[in-house]
Design brief:
Largest sheet: 7 strands, mixed
Strand content: over 45%
Radius of gyration: 13 Å
Number of strands: 11
Oligomer: single chain
Shape: globular
Helix content: under 10%
């Protein structure tokens, strides 16, 4: 069964940190470019960060550059999002996405991140 399962979300104060994980199963993880998206209430889903199949190339939304870091472990079939210096505007459901050439995209169910004092 093709699956992505996110974890690591929660409530954190402004300026704090969280590390999200996305565990993949049911497909060849190293064949997929991986991304983190987020969706806040009433807003469109937006791309937060992406990483290539080998992990050698990453990209970030301007709003998170310098604060968030995406990484992957192709042995553990997991992609991570380290989030530092969190702001209230980072509050959203964070979703993991796997993109494979010629195959439908795979989405996780999401994990809630709330930044509030």
């Amino acid at each position: 069964q093709v699956q992505l399962v996110e974890s690591g979300g929660g409530l954190v104060q402004p300026g704090g940190s969280l590390r999200l994980s996305c565990a993949a199963s049911g497909f060849t993880f190293s064949s997929a470019a991986m991304s983190w998206y987020r969706q806040a209430p009433g807003k469109e889903r937006e791309l937060v960060a992406g990483i290539s199949r080998s992990g050698g190339t990453t990209n970030y939304a301007d709003s998170v550059k310098g604060r968030f870091t995406i990484s992957r472990d192709n042995v553990k079939n997991t992609v991570y999002l380290q989030m530092n210096s969190l702001k209230p505007e980072d509050t959203a459901v964070y979703l993991c996405n796997a993109a494979r050439i010629g195959r439908p995209a795979i989405w996780g169910q999401g994990t809630q991140v709330t930044v509030s004092s």
